[in-house]
Amino acid sequence: MLKNIPILPKLGLLTLPEGLVYGVGFLAHPVVAGGLVIVGVVSLVLGLFSRNMRGLSLLSIVAFGLYFLGALATGTGSLLLLGVFLLGIVLLVLEALAPGFGLMGTSGIIAVVAGLFFSVESPLASAVSLVVASALSAASIRYLVQNDLAAHYIQNLMGEPPRPAIREFPLSVGDVGVAASPLRPSGNGIFDGELYSVMTGGSHIQQGRKIQVVKLQGSNIYVEEIREP
């Protein structure tokens, strides 16, 4: 797409050795580039907006690095677009450190999308990958919020009420309580009037159902639903 914009090829195109171009040129294939964008965006969202998945930010660095390496090698990208993309990442990080989703966050999103969109040959492939990445990112943020894994400012932006203070006192296998929130698969349970953070083995349990402790592993309390005969 870059070649269709007359002024941009003069602003920061990088000439790479011919051998490197042949070696990494496949990274600019629409399918490969689209996959790298999806992996990069989703892992970046999880890394920035979750409380305990920061390591995924490294995966986004690798994915975006390979994406721009392919773009630069084939001439569809430029150092200018790479700089725009990196500026967007910096703005998003600053927004995460000083939340509010205002000018910095909006500008960061625009810069990231522009850097990615104009660095591929096929506008359609770029648009499809960005739409898929956006949908998966939105679903990921929703999952983080619903399972109390999102950073607190993300919960506020999504309009989620603050969670009650959770008591992490040990229970015994066989103790019976009630699901104080939907377990999908983690959530809260009440045992003897006290609130605990609990999780299932993967199944979902509706709020208000009777639950029983089936396993204690470290600080994790595993429960299952008591089904009425």
Question: How would you portray this structure in words?
Answer:
The chain is of the alpha+beta class and 229 residues long. Helices cover 48% and strands 13% of the residues. The chain has a five-stranded antiparallel beta sheet with strand order 3-2-1-4-5, with no helix packed on it. A hairpin with a 2-residue loop joins strand 4 and strand 5. Helix 2 packs antiparallel against helix 3. The relative contact order is 0.11. The N terminus is likely disordered.
List keywords for this structure.
229 residues; alpha+beta; five-stranded antiparallel β-sheet; 7 helices; elongated; disordered N terminus
In short:
This protein is α+β, with helices and mostly antiparallel strands. The protein is built from 7 helices and 5 strands.
Strands, helices and their partners?
Layout: H1 18-24, H2 30-49, H3 56-74, H4 79-97, H5 103-117, H6 123-146, H7 152-157, E1 176-179, E2 186-191, E3 194-199, E4 210-217, E5 220-225
Helix pairs in contact: 1-3, 2-3, 2-6, 4-5
